[in-house]
């Protein structure tokens, strides 16, 4: 594949690099995946050899598309495409993804347009329809014109006005002006008779359209035509190479047609009023246009758009065969520029096979020209398949931009225009380079000083200074100009702490950090401690930097870094050839910063500093002399290898000096003799740094002979004085090795407890078989850890472990416990432990371990036979055959009898009872439970073989079998021991049983009679139904009387009037006539309350004179002091109350 050549007006083109060719080649040859409309984006920039002040450089972004034919419309950062199949796709360019797709037409989409708000999109098609759709709602309108429609334009204020105006035209030659009226939409023909309408654009109130005759402009505000611009002479027919109309602003119309460009200025006679709107003044003449620019080109115009005060032209360079002849023979296609916002009209290419595939076409070019046709820049685009395309196969449109001028040679951020170059296979976004692009170009060509000057001059974002500065410093570093780079850092890095830190570490990596140290800031910004420490350490590496180190330590604030890393870098140089006085003085200063005045005093003394006495007094270092003598003595003992004696003298010689203790701890550690010093290391007064204690404990882990000392030390030292993590890290690699001892394991467990890792400590305690592990488990609530240490816990104390496992069976299932115990092997008596666990589990929940009940049968048979039979009776989850085999092997007879009974083999069970157990009473009990007469026959037959059993059978059959039946079938001559006594007992038992049955029957009959009497008395009670008047009257009565009467009568009050067809059994009036309460009896007699009381009173008066003594004439009412039916009163429980009790007068009279 050939590589594109980019040119400008003032520079000769040159080929791209191989790397650039590969990138473009990969893009050109990439395979498009299926069902995607926007597949990928490649940022493709042309490279020129021109002066750095040339700003006419355009960047391009390729948007690949698989669709072969479509029309497009763009607004802001979105692209709308119309396809041959009549579908419309709404896609976001910045996201490069399809966000909407909807069907609009049944044929090729010819034109698309937006309103100025970008809320509505209009489209027209060869199917003769015009569709206007909302992009944010479901609103959609369709208009049919019955002829192919080629151009459409919406009113820029379509979304804001209720008139919903648009213009459209097509092959019919009519330009329709559609407006929404009261009665619906109405079409007005603005123009006709001059051939098809090829393009139409609407700006403010001006509508411009092109037909075969030329371009016309219509003022919709004044309802009259403004002007006519004739079609350029010699231009191809419009259906072969369409005219291009672009409104540059409200009055400038750019026309590109064939090889001709015209810019027309429309004078609309508009005057602005105070609110910013326009006031239209009627025009009396059609001569309202000025052609402000016009020129001819040497190429075909495939698209045109404004570019500030200039123009961008998509040029097609004709070959030898590209002329009017080819235009006349080429299949026509449609293409139109945008209106309103941004419109990209992508061609409805119907068949590429019909093109004359000569394969010799030139690349399309993007040219920037002035209104006088002066070319300012030219770019040749390597679009895919350009060799086979014609002028009509390309299109150009532009996106709106907020800026209207091209000031200062650079576009402001966000103001730059966007251009869309469309070909059958590609969509390319182009935009001018901005200030940042110019700066990037300077950096790419090595003009770092000029790029820095441009940024400092205010071109581009302020954040670019960091990028330019970083690039400039990189350039100086590559050139090995380290000193110059270091001197520029304050200017380039300014107050950026991350940038300073990054360059500090970069200089350190290059081993050139000493040249940067004088420029490193200590505030505004203040860097991290590590940056300053690395810088100071770098100054210790070479004696030539030692003076700089000393001055830097004195000048830098001590709070911005830690002196310890620098001290650690200097101390190895003590007493070596690289040690200098400046380095010693710097080390003394660092000791002072770190608070180690004794060491600083020693160095100042060695350096013969005259102010050492003031230093001695200031820091009260009189003990330092004593310490120095003690250190000399310890050094002497160390040289003599008397480590134990030296360690024992440390408390006396070092006393309360934490720094001295730490120094000797590390010294003993270096000599690998620290274990002898550990017992003497103080934990308070002084308290050392954590590191000293950690080093001491780690030293005790190195040899098994020190492990007991390690354990005692861990238990005795306060946990707050050290971190357990380093010691744990030193011990863990020894786990499961030959050097692992119980003491070391226990020490590790203690460290785990200190570190809060109780689960790991629990695991170690379990492995060590610690008896107090159960208390530890409960204290730290480690029941989740039971799962891993079942065997160990059972071995430690099964009496504690079994209830624990049973109680937490929701955390560790029975299957897990059983599997671990079975896997224990010879470590313990796993079967016995398993028996204890399963027995406890069965008692807690008989169904929890049902999968192991077969195993549990055997375990009971081995370890607890007396519990086997209760288990067999309670469980339903064991296999009967297996359980029977186990009982047979272990000669468990009663268990065999039970299992045989459950297996449905009672005869064999009976044989076992009689022949093996010899227990006739159990045999009788077993047969009684089976309720099988044949089994009784079998029992009798079996007993005949043993005469002593016949007697026992006779004694226990009372209630089960007729003893006479057994006596009759006994063979003659069979001698039965104690037969007479047993017969006497049988007869006595039979009489007793008969007497009991009679007594029970009498009791049963008495209970039936009593219950019937009670039912009868309950049935004679009445139900009192009151009305509202009675209830009001009752409220006025004494509350105690009302409560007493209610209790005696035991009525149910219904607070509603009685209405119905029933009649009183005394007065025979319907209940609905009188508003009186009624009394209802279970005998179905009903009375008015007043009628019943009057009748009762009359009977009472008659009976009072006679003083009846029999129960047949008993009173209807009984009171507390009256005599009556005592039985009835007791039955009702109302005697004590003294309240009356009612009876049905009819039933009572009839019975008497």
Characterize the biggest β-sheet. 5 strands, antiparallel
Number of strands: 35
Total count of helical runs of at least 4 residues? 42
Structural class based on helices, strands and sheet pairing? alpha+beta
Query: What is the level 1 CATH name of the largest domain?
Result: Mainly Beta
Function: Required for vacuolar assembly and vacuolar traffic.
Protein name: Vacuolar protein sorting-associated protein 41 homolog
Subcellular location: Cytoplasmic vesicle, Clathrin-coated vesicle; Late endosome
Family: Belongs to the VPS41 family.
Write up this protein:
The protein has 1152 residues and is an alpha+beta fold. The chain has six domains: 6-59, no CATH class; 71-427, YVTN repeat-like/Quinoprotein amine dehydrogenase (Methylamine Dehydrogenase, Chain H), CATH 2.130.10.10; 456-632, no CATH class; 689-756; 905-1005, no CATH class; 1022-1151, no CATH class. The protein is built from 42 helices and 35 strands. Helix 5 (464-478) packs antiparallel against helix 6. The longest helix has 41 residues, at 979-1019. The radius of gyration is 57 Å and the shape is flat.
Which helices and strands occur, and which strands form pairs?
Elements: E1 6-8, H1 18-29, E2 41-45, E3 58-64, E4 70-75, E5 78-83, E6 87-92, E7 97-103, E8 109-114, E9 120-125, E10 129-134, E11 140-144, E12 149-154, E13 166-170, E14 175-181, E15 184-191, E16 199-203, E17 206-210, E18 214-219, E19 224-230, E20 244-247, E21 252-257, E22 260-266, E23 270-272, E24 278-280, E25 289-296, E26 300-307, E27 310-316, H2 324-329, E28 365-369, E29 375-380, E30 395-399, E31 418-422, E32 426-432, H3 435-444, H4 448-456, H5 464-478, H6 482-493, H7 497-509, H8 529-538, H9 546-555, H10 563-570, H11 581-593, H12 597-606, H13 612-618, H14 622-639, H15 643-654, H16 658-670, H17 674-677, H18 690-700, H19 707-716, H20 724-731, H21 742-754, H22 758-767, H23 773-779, H24 790-796, H25 798-807, H26 814-823, H27 830-844, H28 853-863, H29 868-874, H30 880-889, H31 893-902, H32 906-917, H33 920-930, H34 933-944, H35 947-956, H36 963-969, H37 979-1019, E33 1022-1025, H38 1028-1036, H39 1039-1049, E34 1078-1081, E35 1086-1088, H40 1089-1106, H41 1126-1132, H42 1145-1151
Antiparallel strand pairs: 1-29, 2-3, 3-32, 4-5, 5-6, 6-7, 8-9, 9-10, 10-11, 12-13, 13-14, 14-15, 16-17, 17-18, 18-19, 20-21, 21-22, 22-25, 23-24, 26-27, 27-28, 28-29, 30-31, 31-32, 33-34, 34-35
Helix pairs in contact: 3-4, 3-5, 4-5, 5-6, 7-8, 8-10, 9-11, 10-11, 11-12, 14-15, 16-18, 18-20, 19-21, 20-21, 21-22, 24-25, 25-27, 26-27, 27-28, 28-30, 29-31, 30-31, 31-32, 32-33, 32-34, 33-34, 35-37
